[in-house]
Amino acid sequence: ILNVEQSPQSLHVQEGDSTNFTCSFPSSNFYALHWYRWETAKSPEALFVMTLNGDEKKKGRISATLNTKEGYSYLYIKGSQPEDSATYLCARISSGSARQLTFGSGTQLTVLP
Amino acid sequence: EPEVTQTPSHQVTQMGQEVILRCVPISNHLYFYWYRQILGQKVEFLVSFYNNEISEKSEIFDDQFSVERPDGSNFTLKIRSTKLEDSAMYFCASSERGDTDTQYFGPGTRLTVL
């Protein structure tokens, strides 16, 4: 994998469903992975910064895991609510460039009431 | 809660004109960034700034671009002679420290070059 890729591109779920999506990234020279939640016309909101292989982070109903050896991270949302509707972005930092975020194209989540 | 602010929210300019996009980072943050997103594409890094100088820049950040921290609160991005392909959403971000620290983003300035 050369770039940061996210899947699926978009997702529709019913209120109350749990869901997850994937961020894949180059495993070489890995330094950190950031997750953001971005609603239209608002600032991207920082969710997690993950650095260690096997890291798991949680914020309310949202959690994320990290596998640096195989180059992927999962974001989980438990019991989705309409207010969870947003684009979820992941961004990688490589060890050669400690401040430059390289973004995926995002997963657009729509939670239907 | 402290937040990054950006002005204007939307800027329309003619090709060849200079534009200055303004940002007020979070007050105790030391690292500042500009990113942009061309419609339909990924968010791309432009430049990072620390201690009054550029610490990293991407290939996009050529001689047409410059950044400045003119006072203790503002952080600006100047595009000297805008091109059609500069049309994008420009995001400012700041972090307290570098490395793995969270980068906090502003809401963006939409730049339209006609």
Q: What's the Cα radius of gyration of chain B?
A: 13 Å
Structural class of chain A: mainly beta
Total DSSP E strands of chain A: 11
Instruction: State Rg of chain A.
Output: 13 Å
Measured between the Cα atoms of the first and last residue of chain B, the distance is 37 Å
Helical stretch tally of chain A? 0
Helix content of chain B: under 10%
Model description:
With 113 residues, chain A is mainly β. In chain A, β9 and β10 (97-103) form a beta hairpin. In chain A, strands 2, 4, 5, 9, 10 and 11 form a 6-stranded mixed beta sheet that branches. Chain A starts with a strand and ends with a strand. The model of chain A has no long low-confidence stretch (mean pLDDT 94). Chain A is built from no helices and 11 strands. Chain B is mainly β and 114 residues long. In chain B, 0% of the residues lie in helices and 50% in strands. In chain B, the strands form 2 sheets. In chain B, strands 2, 4, 5, 6, 9, 10 and 11 form a 7-stranded mixed beta sheet that branches. In chain B, β5 (43-50) and β6 form a beta hairpin. The N and C termini of chain B lie far apart (37 Å). The mean pLDDT of chain B is 94. The chains are: A mainly beta (113), B mainly beta (114). The A-B interface holds A 4, 31-32, 34, 36, 41-44, 46, 49, 51, 89, 91, 93, 97-105 and B 3-4, 31, 33, 35, 41-45, 48, 55-56, 58, 91, 95, 98-108.
